[in-house]
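COURSE: Structural Biology Practicum
ASSIGNMENT: Worksheet 4, Part C
STUDENT ID: 0417
INSTRUCTIONS: Below are two proteins. For each, the amino acid sequence is given first, followed by its structure token string. Answer the questions at the end about the second protein only.

PROTEIN I
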Amino acid sequence: MFDFLTSGQYDVLGAFWVTVQLTLYSAVGSLIWGLMLAGMRVSPVPLMRSFGTAYVNFVRNTPLTLLILGCSLGLEQTLGITLGGGTSKEIGFRLAVLGLIAYTGTFVCEALRSGINTVPVGQAEAARALGLSFFQVLTLIVLPQAFRAVIAPLTNVLIALTKNTTVAATIGVAEAALLMKEMLENEADALFAVFGVFALGFVLLTLPTGLLLGQVAKRVAVKR
């Protein structure tokens, strides 16, 4: 039943490694972009608040498949933007990461904003009374506490991101979902075995992440 794993025809581990890379690069980029968006959402500058609100509400409610296809068709094929050039696989990988960052960053932003709202207003007011700027108050006083409060929501975002990497298959990125599609076409007599292998692979990627970061969230939670 599992002969396809030993035939050498399919690189299952390689496909999952691409999935891991997509997740890691997109997670780092989403954290940075989401942090910037959260700063805009709570900024005292009306223009920045308006941009952050409009971006989050628009992108968060746009299908991820549409965003990634837009990166491929709009940036590469229409505008000729290849993000550094290289082979078509490398370009597709980078465009998929860009689309995942643009989408996931909105959820990171909202998670962080909810954490910012848990910080007592008096702490920010006291910091401003000491002469700290908005940026200093945000980075030195508010965000350290906000991060500790939202590790669990950010964990859920990371798990969702891991599963969302399968959408990259729509632009030909050779990750797990694309290989699974190929195997389902070629191994019609082992459909349940193929599904089982890939389902187990994603469980092994997401379950340890949830358990580990869940313990971290309990240890660093702010006691109020």
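PROTEIN II
(use this one for the questions)
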Amino acid sequence: MTADDVQAHAGALARRALALPELAEARTVAAYVSVGSEPGTLALLDALRARGVRVLLPALLPDNDLAWGVYRGPDSLLPAEHGGGRMTLLEPAGERLRPRAVTEADAVLLPGLSVDARGMRLGRGGGSYDRVLARLERARVRPALVVLLYDWEVVDRVPQEPHDRPVDAVVTPSGVRRFGRPSSEA
């Protein structure tokens, strides 16, 4: 995809995501800054911040866990090299909050490679967001879990490991698909 394609999809994705009741009512949202050809998130981050939402962004720790920082606008993002320079991520400048800060979120926006018809998310394999989901479960909090993808990344089935947890919704530039929460949490 070209940079123009990513930008065009980012605007549509932001509009769809901002219409979600889970984000409209959220006071704190844990999100991420997209990289490469991932669906763009900056427009969404800025719109949430303009609404007065506290937006938490991850900072990758050496053990692949995630610390968090408050997003204060595009100028507050700094490039951080990881994996011996193989990967550069934009991370929030300023105070680092502990990994458990994510438990304060009303909604968590998760990156992914794809989501299937069951709501199972396929990540990049580093386990960072698996740790986030496990942390939320241990804390007995249940923020809305939303994945941002392109339309073609919603597939019939992805591989599933025993620790994987379904998400509540996937937002694509053309729409929203919801998945049911377990009845014990209704």
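ANSWER KEY EXCERPT:
Q1: The chain is about 20% helix and 25% strand.
Q2: The helical segments are 3-18, 21-24, 42-50, 128-138.
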